[in-house]
């Protein structure tokens, strides 16, 4: 989605068990980042890896 020529990031909500949320909060604090920023970075990395995996799998099966 774009607004005035700028892409607008979509907001998502995730629910974590308390121990995992606490770990994420501590991790973010150690890296001097907001929890949401760290969570977004982690998700982006996982999504990129999954997209590469699926692209690779599609190319392999087409050969």
Give descriptors for this structure.
two-stranded antiparallel sheet, single chain, 2 strands, mainly alpha, 63 residues
Write structural notes for this entry:
The chain is mainly α and 63 residues long. It has one domain. The protein is 65% helix and 6% strand. It has helices at residues 18-30, 35-62, and strands at residues 2-3, 6-7. It has a two-stranded antiparallel sheet with strand order 1-2. Helix 1 packs across helix 2 (35-62).
Query: In total, how many domains does the architecture comprise?
Result: 1
Strand content: 5-15%
The helix-and-strand class reads mainly alpha
**General shape:** extended
Q: What is the straight-line distance between the termini?
A: 35 Å
Task: Give the low-pLDDT segments.
Answer: none
Instruction: Please state the average pLDDT score.
Output: 91
Task: Break the fold down into its secondary structure elements and pairings.
Elements: E1 2-3, E2 6-7, H1 18-30, H2 35-62
Helix pairs in contact: 1-2
Short description:
This protein is mainly alpha-helical. It has helices at residues 18-30, 35-62, and strands spanning 2-3, 6-7.
């Amino acid at each position: 989605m774009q607004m005035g020529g700028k892409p607008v990031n979509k907001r998502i909500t995730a629910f974590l068990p308390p121990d995992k949320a606490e770990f994420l909060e501590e991790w973010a604090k150690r890296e001097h980042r907001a929890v949401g920023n760290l969570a977004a970075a982690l998700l982006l990395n996982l999504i990129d890896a999954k997209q590469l995996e699926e692209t690779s799998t599609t190319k392999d099966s087409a050969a």
